[in-house]
Amino acid sequence: MSFLLIIVPLIASAILLLARPAGVRQLALAVGVANLAIALFAAYSSVYDGSFNHEMSRDWVAQAGIKFSVGMDGISLLMVLLTNLLAPIIILSSQSRELDNEPRYYGLVLLMISALNGVFLATDGMLFYIFYELALIPIYFICAIWGGENRIRVTLKFFIYTFVGSLFMLVSLLFLYLKTPETHSFAWSALANVELTQSESIWVMLGFFFAFAVKMPIFPFHTWQPDTYVTAPTGGTMLLSGIMLKMGVYGAIRWMLPLAPEAWHTLVPYFMALAVIGIVYASIIAVKQTDLKRLIAYSSIAHVGLIAAGVLAWNKMGVQGSMIQMLNHGINVVGLFFIVDLIERRLDTRTLSQMGGIAKVAPRFAVLFMIIMLGAVAVPLTNGFPGEFMLLNGVWQYNNWLGAIAGLTIIFGAVYMLRAYGMAMFGPTNEHTAGFADLDTRETAVLGIIAALVILLGFFPNIALHITDASVNKIISAVQL
Amino acid sequence: MFAGLFGKRDILQGLTLLGIGAALGVSIMSLTSGNAGWGTAYISMIQFDQYAQAFTVITLISVLLLIGMSGWSFRSLQSSLGDHYALILFSLCGALCMFSFTNLVMLFIGIEILSIPLYVLAGSRRDDLSSNEAALKYFLMGSFATGILLFGMTLVYGSTGSFNTAAIGEAVSRGVASSGMLKAGVLLLMIGLCFKVSAVPFHFWAPDVYQGSPNTVTAFMATAVKTAGFAAFYRLFSTCFTSINEFWSVGLAAIAALTMIVANFTAIFQNDFKRMMAYSSISHAGYLLMAVLVAGQPGSAGAILLYAFTYSVATICAFSAYIIVAEPSGDGSFSAFNGLSKKQPLVALVMALSMLSLAGIPPLAGFFGKYFLFTAVMKQYPWLVVIAVINSAVSIYYYLKVIIAMYFSKEESTSEVALPSIIRWVMVAGVILIALLTILPGNVFGLI
Predict the structure, then answer these.
(1) Are residues A369 and A411 in the same domain?
(2) Which of B299, B396, B441 sits opposite A160 (nearest CB)?
(3) Domain range enclosing A167
(4) Residue B363 CB coordination number (10 Å)
(5) How many Cβ contacts (< 8 angstroms) between chains A and B?
(6) What are the pLDDT digits (tens) for A178-199?
(7) Is the domain of A276 the same as that of A373?
C-alpha cells in the first residue's frame, strides 16, 4: 500500500514526461484521485495503536546499509492523507489556466507528489533524505519554468538555500549512521538508539535544524520564501506552502528530536525564540502588505512558526496541535492561493487597493472566500480553531511568556485577513471589479470542497486527532529528554 | 587479448565498436565468474585481479560510448579516421596496463602508452592554433611529469631494491621507511601522479588542453584517462605505501582540499561550457583524491570505482549533448544552450540529468558516488568531508547554469540543432546507465 502511493504517481509522471500522451489533464487528475483512494483505503485498513501499518522493507544499496523501507503510523498517515487530498485539488485548480507544455507540468507535479509521499512514508534515514531532495528537483523546475518575473534569480536562491540546508542534514545522518553498531543501519530505530554525548548531539541537532528551518521556513532562514511564493505559478505555490513546508515540520517530529534528544534542553530555547520572533515579525509585515499573494506568503510564515513552536515544546498538546494544524493550514492556504489566482486571472492584478466591491458582483465567491478566510483566522467552529488553541496551549505549558507572545498571532491574523477581505470584497466597485464574473463550475468545485473541509474539520477535529493520538503518545514517550 | 584488434584497425567505426564490445564481453564474463581472469602475464608484471577487471569493465563501457559518439564528431576526417581510432585504442591499452600492473616498470610503460597517443590526438586538428597549443602544452607538461615520476621510481627502487609492488610494500612495512631516499621517492611519485590527474597546484595545463583538444578527445581525457590515472594512483599507494601513510597523507589531504576549492571556485566564473567542464573535471579529481588518502581501507576501492564510473558516464553524456549544440554553430558558451528544451527535449533532458548527477543531487547516480566516497573518508578525515560537502554545494551553481539556459531562458539561440541517430543511441545508452547506477549503485561498488 505504501509502495503504491509512491510508485503510481512516479510511473504516471514518467509516462507524461517521456511519452507526452494526449488527454494529459484527465490522466493527471485520474492519477491524483486514484492516489487519494489508495490513501483513504490505507487509512481505513490501518490500526491506530501507534504501530506502523502497511510496512515494506527491501534492501536497496545493501553495501551502504540503505534499505527501501516504508510504513505509516498515525503521524505519517495524516501527512499522506493531506498530500493526496491536496494533490487532486492542486491538479484541478491548475487547469483553470492554459500552460505551455502541459505534459511536462503535470509530469513534474506527479513526480513531486511521489517524492512527498516518499518523505512521509520513509522509515529509513537515507531513504528519507533521498526523497527529501528528490522533491526539490520538480518544484524547482515548476517554479523556474512557469514562474513570473525574476524567476531565474529567485528560484536559484531557493534551490541553493534548501539544498545547502539539507546537506547539513546529510552530514548529521552520516555521523549517526557510523555510530550505529556494526553492520551499520539507517533504520529509524537504530539511529534513535545511538547514544550521543552532549556536544555531539548539539551538532547533530543543528544539522537537522538547518535543513528543516530552511524548508519551513523559520526566521531568519525565511528570506527565500516570500519571493519564491510570489514568483511561482499558483500550482507551485500550493505545493510549496500546502505540502512541502510540512516536510520540515514532519522531519522535526520524526527525525530531529527523536534522534538527538540530548540537545533538547540546550538548543530548543533558542529555536523556540526564533520561532516566536518569526510569528510576530511575519505577522507585522503581513499587515503592511498591499500584494495579496505576498500577504498570504507572510501569513504562512507566521502560521508555520506557531506550528514549529508547538513541535519544539514537545508536549502532547503541542505536537497534537501541530499535527492537525498542518492538515488545516495545508487546506486553508491552498484555498487562499487559489483565490489569489482566481482574482488575478480576472483582474490582472494582485494589488489590494485596486480591488473592492467584489462581493456585490460575485456573491458565491464572497461566501466561499469568507469561510476559508475565517478558517485561516481560526474562528471557532472552523478548522483553524482547535489547532491554534492546542498549539498555544502547548507553548504556554512550555513557557507562559512565549505562549502569550505567540498568542498575538491570532490578533494579527484577524487584522490582516479581515483587512484584506474587506479591501477586496467590500466598498464600492471600480472599473476593474465591476465586471467580475462569479465562479465557474471548476472553481466552485475546488473552493466548495475546501470550504466543506474547513467546516467539517472545525466541527469534528477528532477525525484528525484520532488518527495521530496513539502515535504521538508513543513518539513523545520514546524520547528521553 | 587486444593485440588482435590493433592488427585490423580499419576505417570502420563499427569494427572498433565490435572489438571493444567483445573485449567488454570477455571482461564481464571473467569478472562475474569470479576467477582470477587471465591471471598474470609478462613474467608477473601484470595481474588481472578483481580490481583490474572491474576498472577494465567500466573503462571499456565509457570508451564504447565515446567511440559511438565519435562517429559523428569525426565525420569530417577523411584519411586520418583510422589513425584516430587506432590512437584511442592504443591509449586504452595503456590504461589497461595501469589497472593491472604489479611492477613499477609496467606502470611506467602503461602511462607512456596512454599518454603518447594522447599528445597526438590533442593536436589532431592540425590547422587549428588552439589544438596545436593544447598538444604542445600537454606534451611538455606530460613529459615533465613523466620525468618526475621516473625519478621517484628510481629512488624507491634504490631504497627497497625491487620494482615489484608487493615486494616494495613488504620492504616498506619492514621499516626501510625511515630512509630519506624512500620518502623523497614517494613524494616524487605523488607529485608526478598528481600532474597526471591534474590536481591543484599541478593543474595549470588542464583547462587549456581540454579546451584546445577536439571534443571527443577532451571527453576521452576527462573520463577514461582520468579513471586510469586514479586507478593506478590508488593501486600503487594501496599496495606499496599504506604502512607509511602518516608521512604522505597530510600533503595529499591538503592537495585534495585545494583541488576541490580552487577548481570549484574557478568554474563558477566560466562562461564557456567546455572550460567549465575542464574545471569541473579538476574538482572531481579532488573528490577522488580523498579515496586515495584512505587507500587500503575497506570500501575505498569500491568508492573510487563507483565514483569514476558515474562521473565518466555523466561527463560523456554531457559532451555528446555539447557536441551537437556547439560544433555546428561554433559557439560553446552557455548561451548556445538557450531554449534547447524546446528545440530538442531529449538532448536537454540528457544534459540536465548529467549535470544533476555531476552535482551529486540525490537520488541520481552521482550522489551515490559521493555518498560512498564520503562514508569511506568520514572516519579519518571528517574535516575533509565537510570541505567536500561545501564544495558540492558550490558546484551546483555552475551546473545549474546550463539547466537554466536550456529550460528557463526566454530568449532562444538562433542556431538549429539536429540530433543524429548515432548520438541519440549514445544518449539513450547513457541515460539507461545513469538510471541503472541510480537503482543499483551497490552492485558496482561491490565489484571490488
Answers:
(1) yes
(2) B396
(3) 1-259
(4) 20
(5) 72
(6) 888 877 888 888 888 888 888 8
(7) yes
